[in-house]
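Notebook, p. 212. Picked up where the previous page left off. The plan for this session was modest: take the two constructs that came back from the sequencing core last week, fold each one, and keep the raw output in the notebook itself so nobody has to go hunting through shared drives later. Recording the first one now, exactly as returned: residue sequence, then the structure token string.
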Amino acid sequence: MDTMRERFASVTSRLLDEDPRLAVVLADIGVDGFAAAARRHPDRVVNVGIREQLLIGVGGGLALTGLRPIMHTFASFLVERPFEQVKLDFGHQGVGGVLVSAGASYDWPSGGFTHMAPGDVALLDTLDDWTVHVPGHPDEAEALLRHAAAAGDDRVYVRLSVQTNSAPRAVDGARFSRLREGRRGVVVAVGPLLDNVLAATEGMDVTVLYATTVRPFDGAALRAATGLADAADVVLVEPYLAGTSTRFANDALADRPHRVLGLGVGRRELRRYGQLDEHLAAHGLDPRGLRERIAGFLTSAARA
């Protein structure tokens, strides 16, 4: 099976053939995947070199001309390093484009902390009107990329990862999907953490929602799911900074007594390179760690 990033290159190359409004801007990362597309569309595949602020600036300039730019590099270089340009060249200018990242929170541990971005979604939450997609499988990535490319002048972030679930789910670029129903609470699994959540909650009497589009946050689906449960206890399991979406869940349930537990990447930097699975376990995002924390949270509610 190809990776999400490989699917991004092949799908976007085809989209460039189909839609003359699309353009791709790169910063040396991912150039090989667009070599053929660059030969066919030299005016719409631009490599600015290792200049991430320029990557976003060129994308914003292309958007001002009426094109729909798709900008790609590691998440830490796409959202964090050029954040001022994202804020001004897109938000302030009122134009749209698509940011497509690689690396996620810790996909390449040997790259060190410079190539990790657990805070990317939280950072974009400080800006207005960004749609955020977090696919959990290359097929989902393709569907969401096509959705983002065709999304008019919207501002969209597509967060790709080498982590992937064993099978794709149907995605529509908007709503959470309900995979299990239960009475003791609701667990929201985001993107590539779905398989771990399903394994962790096996045998538990909980509802499991699957989220691949996290902004806008599907508060209606969460409200409907908590309506099935005996208590409005919610666990959010996100592949980025823990607690990133807790305020959105709290807002959705503001008129109901409820509790929310946000699980995700911890704030403490793990300074040993290790392997991806070791980082998952260290942050408690492997099935064993998730089961302990989810069960503990729900048990504490039963004892209260």
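Okay, moving on. Second construct, recorded in the same format:
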Amino acid sequence: MDTMRDRFAPVVSRMLDEDPRVAVVLAEIGAAGFQEAARRHPERVINVGIREQLMIGTAAGLALTGLRPVVHTFASFLVERPFEQVKLDLGHQDTGAVLVSAAASFDWPAGGFTHMAPGDVAILDTLDGWTVHVPGHPDEAETLLHHAVAAGDDKVYVRLSVQSNRAGRVIDGQHLRTVRGGRSGVVVAVGPMLDAVLDATEGLDVTVLYATTVRPFDAAGLRRATEAAGTDVVLVEPYLAGTSTAAVNEALSDVPHRVLGLGVGRRELRRYGTIEEHVAAHGLDPAALRERIGGFTGAGRAAAAG
């Protein structure tokens, strides 16, 4: 199966052909995928070199002229390194762009901590007005890229990963999707965490919701799910643990509830290893998830008793 990033350049290259507003801004990474598009549209495919701050500033300038810039590099170089420009050139100037990342939290362990960005969504959460998409499959990535580019002049972040669920699902770029029903709690699986959550909760009496758009957070969808399943909520996110707990607390602020945020831990893992080893070390494999989800919701004890 191809990866989300494999889809990125072909999909956006077609957008360049079809929509004269679309522009692409790169900082060397990913440039090879746009060589043909750059020959066809040299004025709308811009590679600024290894200058990530300039990349964001260039995108903001293009947006001020009426274009819809799509900006791409690794998450650590797209959100963390040029954060001041994201905050000022896009946020303060109220200009829109589509930031499309690669490498996710630890997709390239051999690259070391400089190429890891488990805090990217949490960092963007300090700014107002961002839409954040976290696809869990290449088909969903393609869908969400189209949503992002078509979103007027909004500020949108699309988080791509080589980690993927086995199958894509029908998504709309807004709402939580109910994948499994239950009565002993709600588990929100974000993007590529869905398969692990489904494996972990097999036989447990919990509702599983699937999120591929985490900002704005679908508060109404969560509230509907908790009416039947109760207000114990577990978040399983492929980035910094607890990133969306504030969104859940706000959604359920008028009712008693409990929230457990699972995800990537804050401690740096200095033995880089493989993706699978990182997943296990952060407790995001099915066995570890089952223990923590079952223990928190009580569904694990009920399943064992049954």
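Notes on construct two before I forget. The mean pLDDT is 96.
Flagging for discussion at group meeting.
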